[in-house]
Amino acid sequence: MLDFLEADRIFVAQNEARILDLEAQITALKRSIVLLRASQEAAEQRLSSYKYPALTLPNEISGEIFIHFLPPYPDPPPFVGNLSPMCLTHVCRQWRDIACKTPALWRAIDVNFDHRLPCSSLDETLTLIAKWSARSGHSPLSIRMAYCRQHHSVSMLTPLVPHRARWEHLALRLANTQPLSLIEGSLPLLKTCSLEFDNPSSVSDTEFVPLHDIPLLHTAVLDDCRRPHVSLPWFQLTSLTLNYIYSEHCMSILRQTTCLVNCTLFLSVEYMFPDNEFADLVLPRLESLVLEMESYPDANFFHALISPALVYLKLPECFLVLDSEPDPIASLSSFVSRSQCRLRELHVTETHLHEHAYRDAFPLISNISVEMADSDFESE
Question: To which H or E segment does residue 31 belong?
């Protein structure tokens, strides 16, 4: 009996010593864990500071860097995708806050609604347009609608209309003039306007939209207009492009553009009497003129023109050929003499004459180039 008691006393004493040793080890381990965690936290802080130095920049600097990520204004970035400012909002919370509070990131909006998308995507697109407009703050806006179904055009423009007082650049491709009724009235900041009708033959001759209260407008492009269905303050324009327009309507517009400096015209086929003549058209400030054609133009159009400030001229040779004056050299000489202009650059396309013929006739024009007609290349 005494032997058993002694054995238990020895066992308890040994276990107590072992427990004390283990507890000491546990205390040491806990102390080591605390020290390791402190070292790890310090290392993580150093790693975070080293790995993401951009996050240490002032928000204003980050915002300026973000702006340079975009195409130069007024060109718009993609509405969605890797090159859209939307992708900056997905990097981290700090970048999202900076991007959403940088109005210049959202001032150029490209509404390019893919007609292959399901109709349910229209709501998402309209929501994005509303977000961009709100994030742009008070910045002037550049708006481009590259493609849109006819029945979506009004929907796509609607969320932008409340911000029309900030529109600075506008480029729309439309099926008809119906969406333009949304923007009738004052556009106080608009400087450039480009309108293209996707199917001009579907536009009724009675559809006519006057856009006159645009005090800063200086550049306009009308594409596929033939008979213009939009009236602009032509008298204040300094740059004008008219594509696929009948010469008679073109002349009517140009007579109002007394401040015009740069002009590009693509004349469309028009069935007119061959002896049709235009009264003189004087454009006193015109410096650059580019003429193109859909088919054989009415040459009287060019010969009605008087441009004393003209220095750059590009046109097909057929514009210089009249029944009364079939020689293009003599015809151009008559134009220069009548206008009293000092041409510095002359580019003649679809010509049957070699470049030296024009150089010999116009030695004072420093830069002359020609593009031979296809038939002449084939004969050579």
Answer: helix 2-51
